[in-house]
């Protein structure tokens, strides 16, 4: 169905737009702050495990202890700042797209595709830069920083594009399917889709993460050796990435959406 063409009567005023933008940025910042501690710990654990020989469980336990013992140092770290900045920027891009795209004469499908493109253009480069930091900081090397090769960047970008698609484009589609095919109430269908879509996508995204990181950490091994390493770590990496996406685009997405909805209701009162 095509979206209605904005008219003078329905077009928001400048003050309404400013209030919406403020709400969009506030929701993005708070949602990111709520999830960043957990995601930082998971990211550090994934990279540390891949480079140090520790099991995933050992890496997670080590990182959890660091967070508890030195919380201020942890929250002031570059790793935490990268994670918070990444998700704040991603939520903000999605929120601002949702605010401004309905003002244009675009049908629903075009709005969805444009929102995906804008969000991906923000998320994918930011996530690749974030993972460049993690790859170098937790590679377990001798301190010599090697350049990150194009295949690693490409795999990270593919991984992040899948995640953005499953987090911002698929949930409304899945939600509508759940309502149409199962009779599920809209609020439950929306919540279920927002949680399940990005989490399930990690079945595909996790090996891209492992392969890209291993190209940097072990640049000279054969493709067969690399495939065996990815296969050996598949279950653990997938489980960690699923647990990571649950707060990132599941819980965080719900917080972000509900804060925007609450702000919209407040503006109507």
TrEMBL record:
Coiled coil: none annotated. The keyword Glycoprotein does not apply. It comes from the Eukaryota. The chain crosses the membrane at residues 30-53, 74-94. Keywords: Membrane, Transmembrane, Transmembrane helix. GO terms for cellular component: mitochondrion. InterPro entries: C365.16-ike. This is Mitochondrial carrier domain-containing protein.
């Amino acid at each position: 169905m095509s979206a209605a063409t904005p008219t003078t009567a329905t077009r928001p005023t400048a003050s309404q737009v400013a209030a919406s933008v403020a709400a969009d940025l506030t929701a993005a910042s708070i949602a990111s702050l709520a999830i960043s501690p957990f995601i930082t710990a998971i990211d550090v654990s994934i990279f540390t495990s891949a480079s140090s020989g520790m099991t995933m469980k050992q890496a997670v336990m080590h990182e959890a202890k660091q967070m508890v013992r030195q919380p201020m140092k942890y929250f002031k770290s570059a790793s935490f700042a990268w994670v918070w900045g990444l998700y704040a920027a991603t939520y903000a891009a999605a929120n601002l797209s949702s605010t401004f795209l309905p003002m244009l004469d675009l049908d629903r499908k075009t709005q969805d595709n444009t929102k995906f493109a804008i969000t991906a253009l923000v998320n994918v480069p930011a996530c690749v830069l974030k993972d460049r930091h993690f790859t170098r900081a937790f590679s377990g090397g001798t301190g010599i920083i090697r350049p990150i090769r194009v295949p690693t960047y490409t795999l990270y970008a593919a991984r992040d594009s899948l995640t953005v698609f499953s987090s911002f484009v698929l949930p409304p589609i899945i939600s509508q399917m759940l309502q149409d095919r199962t009779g599920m109430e809209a609020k439950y269908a929306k919540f279920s889709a927002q949680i399940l879509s990005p989490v399930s996508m990690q079945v595909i995204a996790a090996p891209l993460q492992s392969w890209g990181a291993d190209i940097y950490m072990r640049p000279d091994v054969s493709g067969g050796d690399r495939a065996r390493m990815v296969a050996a770590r598949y279950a653990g990496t997938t489980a960690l990435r699923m647990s990571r996406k649950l707060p990132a685009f599941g819980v965080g997405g719900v917080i972000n959406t509900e804060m925007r909805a609450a702000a919209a209701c407040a503006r109507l009162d």
